[in-house]
Design brief:
Layout (H helix, E strand, L loop, with lengths): L26 H6 L23 E2 L11 E9 L8 E8 L5 E6 L17 E3 L6 E5 L16 E5 L4 E6 L8 E6 L4 E6 L4 E6 L6 E5 L5 E8 L2 E7 L4 E7 L7 E5 L6 E7 L9 E6 L2 E8 L2 E9 L8 E3 L6 E4 L3 E7 L5 E8 L6 E8 L5
Length: 368
C-alpha cells in the first residue's frame, strides 16, 4: 500500500477501516506515519496503491466488480486555527457505509474549506458518465499556496479523475455547485453575489449568465431533460427551472416552500412513470421530500421530518433506490417499504477526535 503524505496535515489516512480506528487522525497513526516511517496497513486508505497525484489521471475507485457503492466528500482538519481541510473523496458501500477507497484531492490541487456547509456538492452529469465537484480557494493566505489559489472543477469519470479545469470569475468567493450535461459545458453557482456562470469544456474564460438579487442564493444545480435546474435559499425557498441548456433564461419555479424551509439540495430521477424526469427528491430545513410529476404539476408523495440536530444537507438518488443523504456528521439511507412508508437508516457516523470533520456532497458512481 502506498504511504500518503501531505505537507499541510499530519495524517490523511483511513483509520475507519476498523471499529477501533474510526478517525483518520488517530494518534497512533499520526505517530507511526511520520515522515521517514512506514505506515502500518491499518493506517492507510484502501485502494490508494493505484491513485495518482496529477491533475488528470487514474483514480482508486470502482475496482471491485459488483460492489454497489457511492461517492461522498469528507473534509477533515486538525484542531486549532486554519481554514483549509484535508479534502477526501471517498467511495463507500451502499449496504453499510463501509469505506472502499479514497482519494486525497489536496494532492491533486483541489481543496475545500470547512467554513461553508453549501460547498462540496457532488452532481451527476445528465448523461450519467461523470460526477462533478466545485472546489474554491479557502483563503487568500500565503500559507495555502501549496494547496490551491484557484476555483477548480473536479470531474470523476469511471476511469479518470480530472481537476485540470480552472473556473475563472469567482475571486475568492465560495463555489457551491457545478453541473453539466455531458462535459461540453459546465454551469456553476457560488456565494454572494449569487452568480451563475458558464464555462466551456476547453476551460476558457467563464461568462456570467445571471445573478441573484438581495440575499437570495442558488445552492445546488442539476441538468435534467436538457434543462438546468437550481435550488434557492433565503426568502421563498424553491427549485427553479433556469431554461434549456442552449439558452439559459428566466427562472421558473418548479416547487415552492414556505419561508424558513431553506432548500439545501435536490435530485431529479427518471422512473419511467412519465416521459423524462418524473420524480424529485428535496432536502430542506424541516423535511426530506419526494415529489412525483402528475401531468405538468409536481405533487408531494411523502415527507420525512428532519432530525433537527442532524439534518440532511445533500442528497443522491437513482431509479432503483435507495435515497442517500449526508449530514455534517453522518450518512443515511432512505428506503420505501411495502406499506408505503419510509425508513431512514444510519450508514455511518463519524467520531470526534479534537479536530474538525464534516461530510458534504454524495453521488452514485458514473456509468461506464
Amino acid at each position: 500500500m502506498t504511504r500518503l503524505t501531505l505537507p499541510l496535515f499530519l495524517v490523511l489516512t483511513g483509520c475507519d477501516l476498523s471499529a477501533a480506528f474510526e478517525s483518520y487522525r488517530d494518534r497512533f497513526c499520526a505517530e507511526q506515519c511520520a515522515p521517514g516511517r512506514a505506515c502500518p496497513e491499518r493506517c492507510t486508505l484502501p485502494g490508494t496503491e493505484d491513485a495518482g497525484t496529477s491533475a488528470k489521471g487514474p483514480h482508486a475507485f470502482f475496482k471491485t466488480a459488483g460492489d454497489d457503492t457511492f461517492l461522498v466528500v469528507h473534509l477533515q482538519s486538525n484542531a486549532g486555527p486554519g481554514p483549509a481541510a484535508t479534502t477526501l473523496l471517498e467511495e463507500r458501500r451502499v449496504a453499510d457505509g463501509e469505506l472502499v477507497a479514497a482519494e486525497v484531492l489536496n494532492q491533486r490541487g483541489a481543496v475545500l474549506s470547512l467554513g461553508n456547509r453549501f460547498e462540496g456538492a457532488l452532481t451527476r452529469a445528465a448523461d450519467g458518465k461523470s460526477v462533478t465537484l466545485g472546489a474554491s480557494p479557502p483563503s487568500a493566505s500565503m500559507q495555502l499556496q501549496e494547496a490551491t489559489m484557484a476555483h477548480r472543477i473536479v470531474s470523476v469519470r469511471r476511469g479518470e479523475l480530472d481537476v485540470s479545469r480552472v473556473l475563472t470569475g469567482y475571486a475568492q468567493e465560495p463555489l457551491f455547485a457545478v453541473a453539466t450535461a455531458d462535459e461540453t459545458t459546465f454551469w456553476a453557482v457560488g456565494a454572494t453575489p449569487g452568480a451563475l456562470r458558464e464555462l466551456p469544456s476547453d476551460a476558457g474564460a467563464s461568462r456570467l449568465l445571471a445573478s441573484r438579487t438581495g440575499d437570495e442564493q442558488w445552492t445546488t444545480l442539476q441538468v435534467a431533460d436538457g434543462r438546468l435546474f437550481a435550488s434557492t435559499i433565503e426568502l421563498e425557498s424553491r427549485i427553479e427551472d433556469l431554461g434549456a441548456v442552449q439558452a439559459i433564461g428566466v427562472a421558473t419555479p418548479v416547487v415552492r416552500f414556505d419561508v424558513n424551509r431553506s432548500v439545501t439540495s435536490f435530485a431529479f430521477v427518471d422512473t419511467d412513470l412519465e416521459a423524462g424526469v418524473d420524480t424529485l427528491f428535496v432536502a430542506e430545513r424541516n423535511s426530506v421530500w419526494r415529489f412525483a410529476r402528475d401531468g405538468g404539476a409536481w405533487e408531494p408523495r411523502w415527507e420525512f421530518p428532519q432530525d433537527q440536530l442532524d439534518r440532511c444537507v445533500f442528497l443522491a438518488a437513482r431509479r432503483e433506490g435507495p435515497l442517500l443523504c449526508s449530514t455534517e456528521f453522518a450518512l443515511f439511507r432512505f428506503d420505501e417499504v411495502d406499506d408505503g412508508g419510509v425508513e431512514r437508516r444510519l450508514l455511518f457516523a463519524r467520531t470526534f477526535d479534537g479536530g474538525a470533520d464534516a461530510f458534504r456532497g454524495v453521488a452514485f458512481p458514473p456509468s461506464p
